[in-house]
UniProtKB/TrEMBL annotation:
Enoyl reductase (ER) domain span: 8-335
The entry's keywords: Metal-binding, Oxidoreductase, Zinc
Cofactor(s) required for function per UniProt: Zn(2+)
Name used for this protein in its record: L-idonate 5-dehydrogenase
Pfam families in the cross-refs: ADH_N, ADH_zinc_N
Metal-binding recorded as keyword: yes
Protein species of origin: Sinomonas cellulolyticus
Top-rank taxon: Bacteria
Family classification: Belongs to the zinc-containing alcohol dehydrogenase family.
InterPro entries per record: ADH-like_C, ADH-like_N, ADH_Zn_CS, ER, GroES-like_sf, NAD(P)-bd_dom_sf
Length: 347
């Protein structure tokens, strides 16, 4: 097996090891595609993501599709050859969050490809790997392996849209048209939003948002203004300087959902409208059951292909990461995780 392993800031390596074997309750999976996330980029560029430092080698990746190779003892309900994705989270099942139905906020959980716990939780950028059977999500036949790797970020976007309390028949502004923002545009339309605006500084990102269903795009670099009095704002840029405009864009009593990761330290932001317009300002963190919903949306015809701009072989993971870090040329960058000899025959 081959894996993409981070040893520290700007120290990304392709490492080879023996293929693992599944134990009881586990499944051996062959990788198909993996999507590079912003957190992967933070780990690669800085050796840390938010408050979490890489202190030991870490296999990156949590956006994944693959096929089942072998079942461990006691596993049923899945068959070799099936296309699957993997829910990246592990939940304790006993903390207040888990018991209240908010497993994605688990106080003792972990996430694939994350340095939040020690030992670090290995990620999914490998040609072959063992996964717990309860993390496997079987996929409808209508979902392609490439699009299956986009289910995880789409689930993040769906969760963010739903944190607004429903968007059916409402107006929505998505600020920040990177991969999560573009997928939030699609999720808002799928959830029944009447009008969806997308704003960004990048013309290429806005073009992708338009292809994902945005009714109107706003290029902030060209001095275009945000819409006024929208029902819901999804802030997906993570730029503190954007908060003031987003709060002012929302109608009085409207909702701003923060899904873009803000800087970990002190920030300066214009927040007066939060009180003056009585805005509901809420955070959105990952997802739980929305992963199944996201898969169903794609199977039903939601086209995520405009978001996927590049695909690299695993051996060129460094080139893939460099491309993903350049937002002027890329949106979602995929790694082809098939073994080299299989790439010509496996879809």
């Amino acid at each position: 097996m081959k894996s993409v392993v981070l040893h520290g800031a700007d120290d990304l390596r392709i490492e080879t090891g023996s293929d693992p074997a599944p134990g009881p309750g586990e499944v051996l999976v062959s990788g198909a595609y993996g999507g590079i996330c912003g957190s992967d980029l933070h780990y690669w560029r800085h050796g840390r993501n938010g408050a979490f430092d890489v202190v030991e080698p870490l296999v990156l990746g949590h956006e994944f599709s693959g096929r089942i190779l072998e079942l461990g003892a006691g596993v049923d309900g899945v068959d070799p050859g099936q296309l699957i994705t993997v829910h990246p989270a592990t939940h304790c099942g006993r903390c207040r969050s888990c018991l209240s139905g908010a497993r994605h906020l688990c106080e003792n959980g972990s996430y694939a490809g994350s340095a939040a716990v020690i030992p670090h939780r290995a990620g999914l950028f490998s040609t072959v790997q063992v996964v717990r059977a309860d993390q496997i999500r079987r996929l409808p036949a209508a979902v392609s392996p490439q699009h299956a790797a986009v289910i995880e970020p789409l689930a993040v976007a769906v969760h963010a849209v739903r944190r607004a309390g429903g968007v059916d028949g409402r107006s929505v502004l998505v600020n920040g048209a990177g991969p999560i923002g573009a997928l939030a545009v699609a999720a808002a339309k799928a959830e029944g939003a009447q009008t969806v605006y997308a704003s960004d500084l990048s013309a290429s990102a806005l073009a992708i948002a338009a292809n994902m269903g945005a009714d109107e795009t706003i290029n902030l670099a060209q001095g275009q203004q945000l819409p006024y009095d929208v029902d819901v704002v999804i802030e997906a840029s993570g730029a503190a300087a954007a908060l003031g405009g987003c709060l002012s864009s929302a109608r009085r009593g409207g909702t701003v959902v923060q899904v873009g990761n803000l800087p970990g330290g002190p920030i300066q932001a214009e927040l007066a409208a939060l009180v003056g317009r009585e805005i509901n300002y809420v955070g959105a963190f990952r997802f739980d059951h929305e992963m199944t919903d996201a898969a169903d949306m794609i199977a039903a015809g939601l086209d995520v292909s405009p978001v996927v701009t590049h695909t690299f072989g695993l051996d060129d993971a460094l080139g893939a990461f460099k491309t993903a870090a350049d937002k002027n040329i890329s949106s979602k960058v995929l790694l082809d995780l098939h073994p080299t000899q299989d790439r010509s025959t496996v879809a």
